[in-house]
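Review session, final week

We close the course with one last complete record, chosen because it touches almost every idea we covered. It is Probable branched-chain-amino-acid aminotransferase, a protein from Roseovarius aestuarii with 284 residues. Go through it on your own first, then we will talk.
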Amino acid sequence: MSRTIWLNGEYLPENKAQVSIFDRGLLFADAVYEGFGVLDGRIVDFLYHLQRLSRSLAELEILSPMSDAALLDGLTGLIEQNNVQEGFLYLHITRGVHDRDYLYPGGLKATVFAFTQPLHDGSASEPPTPLRLASAPDIRWARRDIKTSNLLGQVLAKEIARKAGADEALMIDPEGYVTECGAMSFFIVRDNQICARPLKRDLLPGITRQTMLKVAAEQGITIVEERYRLEDVFGADEAFATGASSYIQPVLEVDGKVIGTGAIGPVTMRLREEYLVSVRAAFE
């Protein structure tokens, strides 16, 4: 059955949703996006996503296309129309339509569209699916803190991982330090402490990361923010990744090397369980 798409304030069948070939999002990747988790028919961490979206728009000088309330209403309506109880919600905002020119005029009307997808990984009610990662060079631009639609670096990294027989890429910066996965934030656990790369312009401020670290602190788990290399990953007790629709997912293997005991670690499982409790409590 065809999905319903939300395009510029209108709900349309997916085969009727069309954008201009002169949209700057298509020509220049002049656009930002957000990927939301949907759990129990509700958007997970909406306010955090909204804050990141607003920052991304401001950094690129794209005019906010609508009020926060109108955005929430539109996205909630889309979830209802597609009858999504658990899944993924994608929102894309471009600078708008204009004849091809690197310089952009002011006052363009943004193009806004959103769609839903089913879960690619296991449900929150199921045991988490362990990941196998393969390392790949991080070739992205310097402003990774802005969530733009220019994802070619991740596309190529994920292709390297696929050819290596892995589930996901683990990107390594030119200095040899781990940044993140192709579509997820990445962490290691050493001596029951979470090691997280600090947030700067070279790292996306993951929303699930933000909530997970808050939950970890509430649980009394020590968080160490520092850069680390691939050899540190190989020597870690546990590793895991976080993402909007995958929540907290254990990583058991990187480049064919087993992490820790090769089983899902206790810190990872505790974090996943407490994270889901926290998310559902926020719905009440």
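Two points worth writing down before the exam:
The domain at 4-117 is CATH 3.30.470.10 (D-amino Acid Aminotransferase; Chain A, domain 1).
The chain has a mean pLDDT of 97.
Good luck, everyone.
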